[in-house]
Structure formats: C-alpha cells, structure tokens
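Re: weekly structure request thread

Next one in the queue (293 aa):
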Amino acid sequence: MRRDGEGKTLRREIKTLAATNAINASPYTATDVYLMSANGNDTNDTSLTREIERAWLQHEPQRNAIPQEIWRQLRQLKRTLEPTSKKIKTTLQDEASLRSLVVQCTRRRGKARQRLLKDNRNAFPDAQIKVVHGNILEISWLTPSPPVLADPKDRSQRQDCTLASFCVAWPTLSGIRLCSAWSLEVPDHAGGRYLQRAGNDADFRSALFEAGNHFYAADVAAVSPHIGRNTDIYLPAGGGCFVCTCIGARSGANKFVYARAATWIDETMLRPDQVPLPKAETADRSVAALLLE
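Done, posted below.
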C-alpha cells in the first residue's frame, strides 16, 4: 500500500505533465486544447481507431460506416442535453446563483436537504447532483461541445464531441470554492459507435457518466504512465468499454487530466489484456483528487 506522501508525489507529477497542454478558457466551458505528447511530438490517436474499425469490417462489413439514423439519433440526444448544460454554465458563472445553490444544499440536513436536491435535479434534469463528505456539492452533467483540440492533425480531431463535465463546490470562510473540469471527451464518431454497437441497450447519458466517473475514481499511479503517451486505457460504459487516451491540460493556473475516447467496444470483444483502469484504494489517491488541490 502506498503512503499518503507517495500519492501526493504522483499527483504533482501528473500536474507537471498536464502543464504542457494549454486550454484557452475555463474548464467547464467549451474550450480549445493544445495536445502534445510527453516527448514534445504531436500526437495522433487515429491508429488505434483504424485498427479496431478494420477488425469490425472483417467481423461485420455493414458496420464499417455509421448509419445515418445513428447520426440523427446522436444529434437528437445532444440537443436534449443542451438546456441543462447551458443552465449549469450560467449558474456557475453567476456568483449569487452559485452561492445560493451551494449554501442551501450543503447547510440543510435530513429531509430539508433531500427536498432541495430533488428540486435542483428537476431544475437540471440531465445532471447528477449530490452532497458528498458532508458539505461538498457535486454536479455531473454532459456538455455538447465543438472540437476541443486547438491544433487538430486530421479529421478525427476536428469532431464535435460530448464532454462528461464535473464540478465540486463548498462554502468557505471567504466565500464559495469551486473546482470544475471534464473527465471524458467523447467525439461524435465514438459516440456513434456506442449507439450503433450497443443497439437497443444503448443509454448514451448513463454510459458517459459511467465512463467519466470511472476515470475520476481511477488510481493516479495507473493513469500517470498514459498521460500524453497515446497508449490505451479502458473505461467501462454500457456493457462494454470506451477505448481512450489520457490527456493532460491546463487553464491558466488550473491543471487537470481527462480521457479522450477513440471508439467503444462491446465486452465480448475485449481481449484478456484489455482491462479497465483500477480504482484508487482511497479518495486522496484518485484522479478526482487532482481537481481539489
């Protein structure tokens, strides 16, 4: 078992890697990300996608192209997510609204808190809202976004996407502390593959939340070797896994790490060596702990 000091060292190393990739806006908005590998070379995450798509073509030729009805389904799903995403963005940017939301939800107890949480879940219907550790308000939501890579190298990096966004906020003596980022970027191609391959079992919203939450719960020691390396990580989602790369980025002084999906594969396609990231033994050793420092 690692000592607590070792966990802090790992988090510092990850933030050092994250500092090489610039973001031009606050992490809870649609932003541009400049992506570089750890050795300074431009990355290219298309080789994995091509390999998997060739395998699918041999397995089932008609799946080589995502059908138009899937694209229509994805566009409709993203349209339904936009009202909640815009409303949360407005709330987070308005100091008075944010303070009211955080103070009310964290200071109430028992049934009064549950009523408030229920009211806010109704107000933000596509978000997950809860209070954790007694006084920390946690909100997760999905954000339809334009491409986030500032310097795309090919068509796969010029895609619109959906971000699994995340924020935590709590009252302090001087005001409200807010930390926000996203844990997962799902380009439209990867989202379409999920809808296509999962078929009638597809639940886009739940799948992205599952994958994003798994990434934030992952052990920083398991994540660190993948940052900027263009190596694969596997995030469970909807009866399969999103195949992702791990990206470090910064927005001003804030640094964070997120996963970028290349595709989605059913659990029956997974090889024995394709295993999900292990979860952290304790919360302070998780990827989410990076957000709170």
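The chain has one domain: 4-291. Confidence is low (pLDDT under 50) at residues 19-46.
Next request, please.
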